[in-house]
Amino acid sequence: MEFLELRTKNELLASYPVMIDFCPDLSQNEYLDYIQEMINEAHRLFSLKINGKIVSVATVSIRTDLSNGRHLWISELVTSSVERSKGYGKVMMNYLKEFAVKQNCKKIILFSGLARHQAHHFWENHMGFEKRGFVFKLDM
């Protein structure tokens, strides 16, 4: 088991097959463009490798706001569809908790789409998160 912060183009490309499970319409070029823009905005990408293969990927950033103080925002945490239900999401989340503590974060916050019931079950029943609100979106 190995955790790696993804920085190089080859490392980012190696994470693409996992992330398209979450964003299947995203081309490889779009993925690299978005990821580069996210990195420029202080996002960080972490992977969990098992036997040399990436099985889980997370994109995170450190944020501060008035209602939450300093916190770790998880933009995405995706485990490969063929590797789910093996505990890798929990392993990755525990790594991110340790990372958040080292970064002096007081909370971890994430967004999960309304239709992702299985993910909600994981966050609430296995990781101790609580639902706290709604996210609203306006397409431009």
TrEMBL record:
> Which residues belong to any copy of the N-acetyltransferase domain?
1-140
- Would the keyword Transferase turn up in this protein's UniProt record? yes
* Any single Pfam family the record assigns to this protein: Acetyltransf_1
GO terms, molecular function: acyltransferase activity, transferring groups other than amino-acyl groups
Q: Which CDD domains match?
A: NAT_SF
- Report the protein name in the record: GNAT family N-acetyltransferase
User: Top-down, what is the taxonomic lineage of the species of origin?
Assistant: Bacteria, Bacillati, Bacillota, Bacilli, Bacillales
On the tree of life, the source organism's domain of life is Bacteria
Keyword terms, alphabetized: Transferase
